[in-house]
Specification:
By secondary structure, this protein is mostly helical. It is built from 9 helices and no strands. It folds into 2 domains: 187 residues, Ferritin; 69 residues, no CATH class. The structure holds fe (ii) ion (2 copies). The site of one fe (ii) ion has 6 residues, from α3, α5 and α6.
């Protein structure tokens, strides 16, 4: 029995030593520039998660299919927990939770809103757009949490790393779930919707076509006046734009050819002149 007790107390001593070593490693490594950088990145994702919550609300309201709405609602509640976890990480590093404006997430969310504007309300194409927009957000989060978890390990912050990895796994499975939703139902339904409306599989409202038709080179010159059919720069269709562009290229090419030809003629003329002059000199 004695030998068992000795072995047990030996184990607990060695655990204490390991813990002390870990603490020493933490104190040594957790000071300095890397710590500062880690905390800055924490503030960045803490801000981002708050914005994502608002974004998820908008996406859920705009979604048509119940399965997509449900998936967004579920991730909304996960995101609320993730924010709480970030507060724990702040506490573990002895910092008050604070936010730093994250331009990247604001850009990704803004793009998501534009995608909503570019798709017809109540259409499955909009659900496709919502899935893509949400996946862009998830990929940003996966990159951030993956890097932060590794950084926490490097800093000897294993507890913080575990917390960050828990969130990382949620972001990954949200991304996978969205892909499944797209592949198993939403994409196909959006395609059928397009076929039913008789335009060969596209959306009843085609944002790409719309953008091409909206594009007017004259507006870049500030010369185009809307509704002015006699304007020097009338509205162009996509096809006309292509034709115009081809014509412009042809013209450029012809001009270049002409220039080359002129240069050649000049050179020939100069050479002839030189020869004549030489001949004259010999006479
Ligand atoms: Fe998140
Ligand atoms: Fe997320």
């Amino acid at each position: 029995m004695d030998s068992i007790n000795q072995s047990a107390s030996g184990q607990s001593r060695s655990k204490d030593i390991t813990k002390k070593r870990q603490n020493a490693r933490f104190n040594e490594k957790f000071e300095g520039k890397l710590k500062e950088f880690f905390v800055e990145e924490l503030k960045d994702i803490y801000f981002a998660e708050g914005e994502i919550l608002k974004g998820l609300d908008k996406m859920e309201a705009a979604a048509i299919s119940e399965s997509l709405k449900e998936s967004i609602r579920y991730h909304h509640s996960e995101t609320e927990e993730q924010i709480e976890r970030l507060k724990e990480v702040f506490e573990l590093v002895g910092e008050e939770p604070s936010k730093k404006k994250c331009e990247a997430i604001l850009g990704i969310l803004k793009e998501g809103e534009t995608m909503l504007e570019d798709t017809e309300e109540g259409s499955m194409v909009r659900d496709v757009a919502i899935i893509i927009a949400c996946q862009k957000v998830e990929h940003y989060e996966i990159a951030t949490y993956g890097s932060l978890a590794e950084l926490a390990r490097t800093l000897g912050l294993d507890e913080a790393a575990d917390i960050l990895e828990e969130t990382l796994e949620e972001e990954k499975s949200t991304d996978v779930g969205l892909t499944e939703l797209a592949v198993e139902s939403v994409n196909e339904q959006a395609k059928e919707e397009g076929e039913e409306s008789g335009n060969g599989g596209g959306s009843p409202f085609d944002p790409v076509e719309e953008q091409i038709n909206d594009y007017n080179p004259a507006s870049e010159h500030g010369d185009y006046r809307e509704g002015d059919s006699d304007s020097e720069y009338p509205m162009h269709t996509g096809e006309e734009l292509d034709e115009d562009f081809d014509e412009e290229l042809d013209e450029d090419f012809d001009e270049e050819l002409d220039e080359d030809f002129d240069e050649e003629l000049d050179e020939e003329f100069d050479e002839e002149l030189d020869e004549e002059e030489d001949d004259e000199a010999y006479k």
